Amino acid sequence: MVGKFEGERLEQYRIAKAIELYVNEKGSLKEISEITGVTVRRIMGTLRKKNIPLRMDEEVFDKGMEHARRVFEF
Predict the structure, then answer these.
(1) Helices (H), 25-57
(2) Tens-digit pLDDT profile for residues 25-39
(3) Does 1 or 31 have the greater pLDDT score?
């Protein structure tokens, strides 16, 4: 029982640390994920729940648009 509780607290701490790093612009989602051991998907979901907007640099935006053009043929 204690082990599970400690595991949950550690996970909560890691998520909180990931959010703190992201908000303070200490790295990309991928870098923060690697540092904290929290998946990018989990970080993004927590950001969404907390209404914290995602940062998107120009390179990421351009890659996304390129992918959309290929998929939707525009």
Answers:
(1) 29-36, 40-49
(2) 999 888 999 999 999
(3) 31
Distances from the Cα of 14 to the Cαs of 38, 53, 62, in angstroms? 7, 20, 31
Read off the pTM.
0.71
What average pLDDT does the structure give for the chain?
88
Side chain identity at residue 19, one-letter code: I
Range of the domain at 27: 2-72
CA-to-CA separations, 58 to 1, 30, 45, 49, in angstroms, rounded: 47, 16, 22, 25
Query: How far apart are alpha carbons 35 and 42 in whole angstroms?
Result: 14
Q: Please report which helix (H) or strand (E) contains residue 67, including its range.
A: helix 58-72
